[in-house]
Specification:
The protein is an alpha+beta fold. It contains 8 helices and 8 strands. β2 and β3 form a beta hairpin.
């Protein structure tokens, strides 16, 4: 499953397969709409379903659903991209504003950056992933080029050779394998981050 945020201008023409029986968008909550009728939807879809929407909506952000923390990763993509942020804020205003405090004065409130999200649950940690999946996740995290240095920093020469041998020749990477644990620590991953690493690698 993929979590994504879709932007649909008011004039968007939706083909029949993507509309409900009343001709409205076949998308539910959470959503937000501005005064012009432009919309944002937070969705969780199969990759093929999301691909059907790409020709009719702008996908501002997307991430494989891996349980708790997925929405944070999706919203961070928008915060990191000025162009997408501008589109997002044209529909959902995140600027601080003055409101009455109920006592004749005013107070400043700042809306949360996220207009909404879908329920998340902690997914189980896979016992293992293939070496291909493990390596691809290292690449996605930008850690692949740090592996050689991390292994070289292992002080014990025997342990260093064992970890390098495991990294280069293992067909599967087990979460509890001492070599995986040693390499994860050298790459600066906490135990929780290593668990998330395995969850995300298992989806690749």
């Amino acid at each position: 499953m993929i979590d994504a945020i879709l932007h649909l201008p008011n004039a968007t023409q939706i083909p029949e397969p993507l509309a409900d029986e009343d001709g409205n968008l076949a998308l539910g909550d959470p959503q937000t709409v501005n005064g012009e009728g432009d919309r944002l939807h937070y969705v969780r879809m199969l990759p093929a379903q999301l691909d059907e929407w790409r020709s009719h909506a702008t996908v501002l952000a997307e991430a494989t659903y891996t349980g708790t923390g997925t929405a944070a990763r999706v919203y961070q993509q928008i915060q990191d991209d000025p162009g997408k942020l501008a589109i997002y804020e044209s529909v959902y205003d995140t600027a601080p504003r003055e409101v009455g405090d109920g006592e004749g004065g005013t107070m400043t409130i700042t809306p949360p950056f996220a207009f909404g999200m879908l329920a998340e649950s902690k997914l189980p940690v896979p016992a293992s992933v293939s070496a291909r999946q493990g390596m691809e996740q290292l690449i996605r995290l930008g850690l692949d080029e740090q592996v050689d240095t991390a292994i070289d920093e292992i002080e014990d020469p025997i342990q260093r050779k064992i970890v390098r041998n495991w990294f280069e020749k293992a067909g599967e990477w087990e979460r509890d394998n001492p070599q995986f644990v040693a390499l994860s620590e050298k790459l600066g991953l906490s135990a929780e981050q290593s668990d998330d690493y395995m969850r995300q690698a298992a989806t690749l």
